Structure formats: structure tokens, C-alpha cells
Amino acid sequence: MSATALRPAVPLLLLIIAGCAIAAIGNGVRTSFGLFTLPMSADLGLTREGYGMAMAIQNLAWGIAQPFAGNFADRVGTGRTLAFGALIYASGVILMTISPDASALTLTGGVITGVGIAICSFSVVMAAFGRSVPPERRSMVFGIATAASSFGQFIFAPISQGFINSFGWQTALVYLGVMILMIIPLSYALRGRTEQAVGQADLPFMQALSKAWGHGSYRLLVIGFFVCGFHLAFINVHMPAYLVQCGLSPEIGSWTIAIIGLFNIVGSLLSGYLGGRFPKQLLLATIYFSRAVAIGLFLLVPVSTFTAFAFAAVMGVLWLSTVPLTAGLVAMFFGARYLGMLYGVAFFSHQLGSFVGVWLGGYVFDQTGSYSLVWYLGILLGLGSAAIHLPINEKSASSFALKPV
After folding, report:
1. Which residue has the higher pLDDT, 228 or 399?
2. Which site in 70, 253, 259, 355 is 20 to 30 Å from 311, CA atoms measured?
3. Which pLDDT value is given to residue 64?
4. Domain span holding position 44
5. Cβ–Cβ contacts within 10 Å for residue 210, how many?
6. What are phi and psi of 71, to 5 degrees?
7. What is the CATH number of the domain that holds 31?
8. Rounded Cα–Cα distance for residues 32 and 400 (Å)
């Protein structure tokens, strides 16, 4: 049976609903960590760089673990992988409450939480969708999953801020950790693994990675995805503190993050829809160019509640709209059999960018008292990534086909 449209263990609609709920919880909790920057830094005596380093390590650990999590899900099963990841993720978040200094926070909120996020991330969810959905519908379904993760960002930002205001940051983290455990029963609907496709070679991890890296368009896609991570992580972690520095309240910061998530529902669905009708690499180039323009305009106008919300709305449309297009290109290059692993490799580049964005934001602020240099760098990287995506060619990699005997 082909891996392009395997019959799922449960009705396809139920699988999609469960997968979207997992994506919403996992991403919603993760994107709320920026709201903890100021209260945790104040209580623990952390510098902005100290907290930023822990979150940067989280993104790096997520990126390093993602290819292995994807490969594990491809070969062992998605449901088991997601449930195991939820346990690790929840443990890391709860252990953040007893982290007395930056080193402990780097271990709990950084390494443990980052590995947990990788194992139960929407990247693993998309591998389940990729094996169950016909190729012509994948881009749209990937967009739905990405929109669901953004909806999680929209609902968890005000919930997390409410928890912090009402109970303090320690109790807020415990509540979020318990909510992550909801992923475990939901993961049952995504059980199963991707089978070898007819006419496609079954390659070991390193051999598949080596052949994939030899595909020039895949290399460009991986390099360009670095910039997506840089933008997202810097804004997600440092935007609330930046707005407070500009004289706005922490609540405005939380709603800014929520608005990004709300508008990315539109962006992700639109991206998934357009990805099935137009060249994906051109859409990606347009997204990165538009991000650079949006950041530039935001820096030119005085910061106010209106401009913060307007910027959040624009960036929200462009936020995770790269994901269905990038995943769609990986599936087009190499087929569904290797989607979890090879999208995971691309996502590692994304998380390297996240590491740099989060850490550099904290470092530059501590050194200069301003985030300006990082904002300007974000503009340059957006323009560079737009240029990198233009030469990508939408065609499958012949090295992944079975050789005639």
C-alpha cells in the first residue's frame, strides 16, 4: 500500500481534530513563555540574557531532538511518540517552578522542556497527517494543523497572563504543565506509523539524510527556514518586554502575542490553500519579504497600543504560514515516508535561528539597553531568505526512488 494515503486507525476527521488539539496545546503553552520573562527575572534575579539563554537552549534542544523524534514517529508510531513527549514536556514546565537560578532554568525550561516539545510537536502531528491524506490535499491539511497551533497561541496567551496575575508565575506553570498532559489521551487517535511507499527505497537514517542534503532545493529550504525561527523566537520571547519598555502594560504584551496567534489562523489556512495552487517557493519568498517590510514599518512609527496590535496582526498572517509550504515541499521532494525525519532536519535549522534570535535579543538588550540592532538584523535576514527561496525547484528527488534490478 502506498504511503501517500494510508487508511488511518480512526476516521480521518477524528484524526485531524485530535491532531489539531495536540498542536494547539503544545504550541499554546510554548508561546506563553515570553509572558514569564519579567516576573521570573525579577523573582530569581535573572538578567534578560539569563532568561533568554534558557529559552534559547529550549529552542536549540527542540531543534536537535526534532529529526530523531520524527524518525522515531515514522518507524515506531505517532501516538506513542506524542504521549511520551507530553510527559517530558509537562515535567520540564513544572520543574521550572523549582529552578532557583539561570543554570537550573536552562536545564528544566531549556533542555527538558525543549526535548519534550520536539517529541510532541506539530511536526510529529503533520507526519501523521502526511501519511493519511492524499497528496493533493496535504498542503491544505498542513495549513489547518498550523492554524490550530496558532489558535493555541491565541487562547493560551491571555489564559497564561491571567494565571500569572491571579496565582503567581509558579502556580501558572503548574497549571500549564497539567494542561499539557491532555495530549496523552488525544494521541491515541494518531496511532500508527508511515509505511514504505511503492517504488520508494527504505533508507537508514544517515543514508536518507545524506541523500536529502544532496538535493540542492532542500538545502536552500533548510537554510531559509533559519530566518523563520529567528523572527518568531525573538518576537515571541522579547516582544512583551519590548512593549513594556516602550511604556505599554504587560497585558498589552500578552494580547499582542494572542493577536499574532489569531491572525495566523487566517495566514496558515490561506497559505495551505494557496500552496496547492501556486509555486510554494514563490509564496515563501513573498512571506519573508513581507516580514522584512512589516518590521521596517513598525520601527518607523511611534509605538502605541494601536501600532503594536496592527504589527501583531500583520506578522500573524505571516507567522507560521511558512510551515505548510515548507512541509509541503519536503513531502514533494522525498514523499511521506521520510516527512517526519526530513522536515525535522529542516526544523532544526529553524530552531538554530530561534536560538540565535532569543539569545541575541537578551544579549543586545543587556549590552545596549535596546532591541534596535536585533530588529534591524531581522529585516536583513528576511530579505536574504526571500532571495534564497527563489531558485528552489518543485520536483521530487530521484535518489529516493528504488533502483531497477
Report:
1. 228
2. 355
3. 87
4. 12-193+202-398
5. 12
6. -65, -40
7. 1.20.1250.20
8. 40
The answer to whether 382 and 288 are in contact (CB under 8 A) is yes
What's the pLDDT score for residue 8?
56
| Res. 10 pLDDT band, cuts 50 70 90 | low
- What is the SS3 assignment for 3? coil
3 within domain boundaries: no
**Number of domains forming the structure of the chain:** 1
Q: Is residue 1 part of a domain?
A: no
- How many alpha carbons lie under 13 Å from residue 402 in its C-beta half-sphere? 9
The pLDDT of 364-374, averaged and rounded, is 91
- The region that residue 77 occupies, defined by phi over 0 for left and psi between -120 and 50 for alpha, beta otherwise, is left
370: left (phi over 0), alpha (psi -120 to 50) or beta: beta
Q: How many CB atoms lie within 10 A of CB 43?
A: 11
Q: Is the pLDDT of residue 360 over 50?
A: yes
- Would you say residue 140 lies in a domain? yes
In a domain, residue 229? The reply is: yes
CA distance 39 to 27: 21
pTM strictly above 0.90: no
